[in-house]
Structure to design on (1279 residues):
């Protein structure tokens, strides 16, 4: 794998949209061609080279290309948008839409990420070593097809709307989360290792939530049916199993009703 | 004085009888004329096909329901530009949306396909100012809108009491108040029933509390339409749309026109236009044994000259369904569970909106696709069978070129069939695979402009006859050497070589180059004021409406560039 | 002779009443009397003919004072700054007609900026819910003519929409509701015992911020899981939930009117989203509709106009100039202001100075700030430029959209102060000026 290192040389006045910073866009290009890729600050179309200096070399294919981002990129969004393969490492905090609509490859953020992390993600892997804000792995506004595949792991905490309208894939929040987990989901798994304020699984048709801490305000739409042992993220624990949302429509498989599940660690 | 001549094209104009002959079309001051001076600007159409501007007889392009569809579907816009071959800005304004385009995209996209007129299919009278605001912001296209009458309380009362003259006077008043063009009927009685959560699924189901049936409503409106002599006939979306077995209800509805002859001065011959016939031509008792009823319905249509229809072709896209048929949309949402909007409109109508994916890998969608094409291919008189997608219900209007391709090429139909997961089941439930008919350019000219224009009573405006508006489409198609690759046919109809609007070149090589003024067409009935009807109107407004009568009729300043089609009733 | 103008629209709340009678003076400049209107509406008409109306644009001077300038200068200054800014924001439209809102769309498309309306701090969450779950609604006349069960959830029309209950919902006698209030059941769900709760048959005193749970409980009952409910949800007893759910199920025609109690508590859009789900469920057994209690008389307008123009009702990002983008949370005015993401601000027909959080205002204040408004308000007083305009519904007419999306054609009742432009004219002149400057290569 070849590596391109991009280092911030000047800050934008507002926020910069780095939608072209993906292995797909960089692959097969010279450093000069990469530096000439567009990025937007409001209506101004800049070149990436106006803000970053580039070292190293891009691979022939996306899968063969790794991008390392250095510098304070807190005012830069859309890294890794729609990427299909390869790797991005961001050595700092960063802004919104990291890995949005991504289909493959891996993104690591050594700091915090803002909202819309992994929005409508289809595949690949995102690792956030710090915190994330709202809408982790959720759907774009109005779309009933949220995150459908891949893995998002946030080592810190996250805000509201985790896995909204999710249909597949896994989200792991190692810290606490606020409200709305798997709302409207029709599949997928969300694991929260800390506490959640409430509204887990509201309007959920299908999907699995694993909560290691407390749910401060559980929804009335879930009903306890069993105590089970489950292997989650590499270890086995005992959980109380709740099914729901009993207020929401349900699908059937071979005549049996399929419920959404909340597994609450004992 | 501006003059222009289009030279050496193959001209197809069924209204004036041109069947692909090489001819020159002369234009002076925006109108078609016999000849022009030698100073006229010349457009060389050698090796190209020339037709009048396209006329869309049925589409949902402006107004409250269309716009709520736009509002509730941000995902219809997102990334669609680059993902779906979208257009970067060409005209004055940006173009947004796929299945429910913005008004600006609507105007530009129709113009690029060579269309210059659309008939908005359902205008709720109370919300008419909204429709007219959108017309103002839709560039290039002439537009008209049909107010809906099939669930209107005034019409219910007049028809029940057999007060033909009062019904006619009320209709004339409402056309004037809303600046509407003609009478639209959607699920007669059924939408009123939906205000109580019920429906009328046959023409004989009584409408709750109103002591009337859909059959009586439709007959009463046909009678009033011909009494007035409106340019267009009653335009119906009948009961029980979209359900297996409904072809019988469709034939029952069509039979309501039996024995009635068109009476008007506009050259219209039909008394009933059945829109999006595809949705009404279903056999079977459930989605499991669902099959095509196109043959049965078209046998009836072919033998009854007082009926016209449009197809409502399924294009196999992700789209947005929207109709004044409120109960239908609710039931559709119960099937696909995506999202559902509904708007019941006081005393008049209702509507619903549900996004829908016509997936080629779903058997029913494949059969629906086959039914639409069968309707076109079974047709004996293509002046009476028009191309639509019931935009955006069966697919966006931007797919008309694809529909034309399928009708013109068996190879194209087979190629699409081959992509279907349940190809064999689709073939078994329809006749599409056995149909080898391939329509020609003259047929397409009938189905996309001459036929709809005649049915709307507008062929003196929208054709290439002398005195007509010089709205002209020039396609990159050599009528003597049609391409063997059907994709090239689709491409040619997608982007014209030229589109002219009143003699102004608005599209050149598929690019918007000008945005001249456009008209709002409406029907002005000149008749003496009817004191009884005015009294009834005043009473209903003071008791039941929530808007004052004086604020109901669209103010003149809110009607964009009005052009009245006038008629007198003694 | 004073002149009486009837069927006038009221430029106050989302009821957009259109039955106002206004008596104006002989010269058409003064309003003498206003009838059929609530106390707040009356004040707006009176303000229209106030002698203190601003008649010329005012530009901030280096010493901090404001100096009158011509409209031409104001238009040129605004056009140049819009073109110069990387990401200008135009926000407001609580009291602008649709013609003005359409012109604003043109301005911001040419400028390549952000365009947003007051929904962003009000019923924006309702839009988000409509995006995700649809909107089974109706016009207000359906409620008047048919409804036998009315729910006000997190809304207090007695104060915010003074004529709502009498014109449209609880009291009027309609076609199928000849007995008016006597045959209607009114349910108010609110943490407070409001004046609206005072006229209700049932008041569920919900625990603040827990509406989502109560909706969930109602849905449980509708789906046949009433027995699984805990004894109390969101502070409301199980028996009361079951009783009210039964009333909802047995309604002939029911309507839920919801307000800021839902949009401004935790979960925001999700509270409305699940209300829409409940409405949909109820249609299996009855007939139900739902409606947002939109605040201003034409705050529904920009959502309507921009949806047909761009496909999005608010929070528009037009910076790419060939396509629009929208994602509230990113492209919403307050979020952008808090993040210091815009570099010019136009406040039109509202008062961001009063309504935005102070840190947001501080960020905006660092950049050029234009206020377009008939009146002096907090925004105008911290602006670099204040451009006065006509008052829609008073000295200019136009189309407005009532809370149920019904277009109402407003009338002009008095002449505007001499020389004062309406929003549409002003904005189109700014757009024309930008096009001129672009053509000359000055931008």
């Amino acid at each position: 794998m070849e590596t391109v290192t991009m280092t911030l040389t000047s800050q934008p006045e507002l926020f910069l949209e780095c939608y072209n910073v993906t292995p797909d866009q960089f692959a097969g290009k010279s450093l000069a061609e990469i530096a000439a890729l567009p990025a937007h600050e409001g209506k101004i179309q800049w070149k990436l080279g106006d803000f970053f200096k580039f070292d190293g070399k891009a691979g022939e294919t996306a899968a063969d290309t790794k991008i390392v981002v250095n510098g304070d990129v807190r005012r830069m969004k859309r890294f890794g948008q729609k990427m299909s393969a390869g790797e991005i490492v961001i050595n700092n905090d960063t802004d919104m839409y990291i890995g949005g609509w991504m289909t493959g490859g891996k993104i690591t953020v050594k700091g915090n990420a803002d909202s819309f992390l992994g929005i409508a993600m289809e595949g690949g892997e995102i690792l956030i070593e710090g915190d994330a804000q709202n809408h982790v792995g959720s759907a774009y506004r109005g779309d009933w097809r949220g995150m459908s595949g891949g893995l998002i792991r946030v080592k810190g905490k996250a805000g509201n709307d985790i896995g909204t309208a999710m249909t597949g894939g896994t989200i792991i929040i190692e810290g606490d989360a606020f409200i709305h987990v798997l709302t409207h989901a029709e599949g997928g798994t969300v694991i929260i290792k800390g506490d959640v304020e409430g509204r887990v699984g509201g309007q959920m048709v299908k999907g699995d939530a694993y909560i290691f801490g407390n749910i401060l305000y559980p929804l009335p739409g879930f009903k306890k049916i069993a105590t089970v042992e489950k292997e989650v993220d590499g270890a086995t624990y005992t959980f109380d199993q709740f099914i729901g949302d009993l207020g929401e429509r349900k699908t059937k498989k071979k005549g049996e009703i399929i419920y959404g599940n909340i597994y609450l660690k004992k | 004085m501006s003059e222009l001549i289009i030279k050496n094209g193959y001209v197809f104009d069924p209204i004036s009888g041109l069947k692909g002959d090489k001819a020159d079309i002369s234009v002076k001051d925006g109108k078609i004329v016999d000849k022009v001076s030698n100073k006229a600007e010349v457009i060389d159409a050698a090796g190209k096909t020339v037709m009048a501007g396209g006329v869309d007889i049925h589409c949902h392009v402006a107004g409250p329901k269309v716009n709520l569809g736009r509002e509730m579907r941000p995902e219809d816009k997102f990334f669609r530009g680059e993902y779906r071959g979208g257009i970067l800005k060409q005209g004055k304004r940006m173009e947004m949306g796929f299945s429910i385009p913005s008004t600006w995209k609507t105007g530009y996209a129709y113009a690029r396909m060579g269309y210059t007129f659309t008939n908005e299919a359902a205008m709720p009278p109370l919300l008419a100012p909204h429709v007219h605001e959108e017309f103002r912001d839709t560039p290039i296209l002439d537009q008209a809108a049909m107010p809906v009458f099939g669930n209107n309380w005034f019409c219910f009362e007049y028809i029940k009491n057999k007060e033909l003259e009062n019904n006619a006077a009320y209709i004339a008043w409402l056309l004037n108040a809303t600046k509407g063009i003609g009478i639209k009927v959607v699920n007669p009685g059924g939408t009123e029933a939906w205000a109580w959560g019920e429906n009328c699924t046959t023409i004989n189901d009584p409408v709750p509390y109103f002591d009337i049936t859909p059959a009586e409503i439709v007959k009463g409106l046909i009678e009033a339409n011909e009494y007035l002599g409106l340019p267009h006939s009653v335009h119906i979306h009948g009961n029980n749309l979209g359900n297996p077995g409904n072809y019988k209800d469709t034939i029952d509805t069509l039979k309501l026109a039996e024995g009635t002859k068109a009476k008007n001065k506009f050259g219209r011959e039909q008394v009933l236009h059945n829109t999006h016939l595809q949705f009404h031509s279903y056999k079977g008792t459930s989605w499991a044994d669902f099959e095509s009823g196109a043959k049965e319905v078209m046998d009836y249509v072919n033998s009854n000259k007082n009926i016209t229809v449009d197809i409502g072709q399924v294009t196999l896209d992700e789209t947005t369904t929207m109709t004044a048929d409120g109960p239908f949309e609710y039931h559709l949402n119960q099937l696909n569970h995506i999202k559902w909007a509904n708007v019941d409109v006081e005393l008049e109508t209702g509507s619903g909106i549900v996004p829908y994916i016509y997936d080629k890998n779903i058997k029913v969608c494949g059969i629906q696709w086959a039914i639409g094409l069968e309707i076109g291919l079974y047709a004996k008189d293509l002046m009476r069978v028009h191309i639509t997608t019931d935009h955006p219900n069966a697919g966006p209007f931007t797919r008309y070129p694809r529909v034309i391709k399928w009708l013109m090429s068996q190879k194209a139909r087979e190629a699409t069939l081959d992509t279907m997961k349940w190809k064999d089941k689709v073939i078994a439930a329809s006749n599409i695979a056995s149909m080898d008919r391939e329509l020609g350019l003259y047929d397409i000219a009938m189905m996309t402009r001459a036929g709809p224009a005649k049915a709307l009573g507008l062929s003196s405006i929208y054709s290439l006859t002398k005195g007509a508006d010089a709205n002209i489409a020039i396609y990159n198609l050599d009528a003597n050497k049609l391409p063997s690759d059907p994709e090239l046919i689709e491409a040619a109809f997608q982007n014209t070589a030229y589109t002219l609007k009143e003699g102004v070149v608005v599209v050149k090589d598929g690019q918007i180059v000008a945005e001249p003024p456009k008209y709002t067409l409406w029907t002005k009935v000149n008749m003496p004021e009817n004191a009884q009807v005015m009294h009834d109107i005043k009473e209903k407004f003071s008791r039941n409406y929530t808007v004052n009568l004086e604020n109901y009729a669209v103010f003149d300043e809110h009607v964009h560039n009005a052009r009245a089609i006038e008629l007198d009733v003694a | 002779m004073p002149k009486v103008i009837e069927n006038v629209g009221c430029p106050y709340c989302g009821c957009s009443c259109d039955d106002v009678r206004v008596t104006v003076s002989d010269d058409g400049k003064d309003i003498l009397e206003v009838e059929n209107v609530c106390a707040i509406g009356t004040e707006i008409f009176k303000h229209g003919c106030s002698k203190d109306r601003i008649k010329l644009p005012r530009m901030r001077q280096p010493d901090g004072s404001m100096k009158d300038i011509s409209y031409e200068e104001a238009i040129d200054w605004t056009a140049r700054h819009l073109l110069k800014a990387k990401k200008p924001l135009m926000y407001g439209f609580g009291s602008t007609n649709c013609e003005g809102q359409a012109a604003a769309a043109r301005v911001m498309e040419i400028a390549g900026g952000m365009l947003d309306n007051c929904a962003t701090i009000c019923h924006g969450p309702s839009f988000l819910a409509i995006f995700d779950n649809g909107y089974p609604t109706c016009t207000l006349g359906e409620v008047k003519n048919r409804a036998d069960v009315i729910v006000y959830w997190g809304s207090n029309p007695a104060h915010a929409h003074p004529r709502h209950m009498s014109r449209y919902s609880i009291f009027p006698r309609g076609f199928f509701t000849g007995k008016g209030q006597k045959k209607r059941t009114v349910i108010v769900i609110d943490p407070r015992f409001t004046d609206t709760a005072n006229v209700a048959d049932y008041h569920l005193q919900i625990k603040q911020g827990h509406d989502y749970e109560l909706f969930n409980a109602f849905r449980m009952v509708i789906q046949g899981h009433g027995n699984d409910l805990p004894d109390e949800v969101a502070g409301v007893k199980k028996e009361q939930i079951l009783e009210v759910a039964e009333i909802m199920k047995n309604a002939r025609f029911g309507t839920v009117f919801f307000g800021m109690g839902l949009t401004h508590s935790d979960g925001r859009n999700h509270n409305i989203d699940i209300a829409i789900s409940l409405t949909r469920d109820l249609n299996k057994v009855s007939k139900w509709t739902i409606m947002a209690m939109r605040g201003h008389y034409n705050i529904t307008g920009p959502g309507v106009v921009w949806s047909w123009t761009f496909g999005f009702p608010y929070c528009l990002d037009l910076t790419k100039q060939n396509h629009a983008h929208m994602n509230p949370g990113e492209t919403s005015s307050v979020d952008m202001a808090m993040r210091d993401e815009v570099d010019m601000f136009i406040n039109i027909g509202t008062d961001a100075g009063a309504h935005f959080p102070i840190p947001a205002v501080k960020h905006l204040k660092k950049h050029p700030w234009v206020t377009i408004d008939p009146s002096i308000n907090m925004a105008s007083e911290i602006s670099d430029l204040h451009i006065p305009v006509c008052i829609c519904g008073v000295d200019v007419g136009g189309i407005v959209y009532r809370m149920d999306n019904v277009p109402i054609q407003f009338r002009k009742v008095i002449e505007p102060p001499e020389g004062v432009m309406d929003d549409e004219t002003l904005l189109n002149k700014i757009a024309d000026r930008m096009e001129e400057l672009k053509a000359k290569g000055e931008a």
About this structure: Chain A is about 5% helix and 40% strand. The mean pLDDT of chain A is 97. The longest strand of chain A covers residues 223-232.
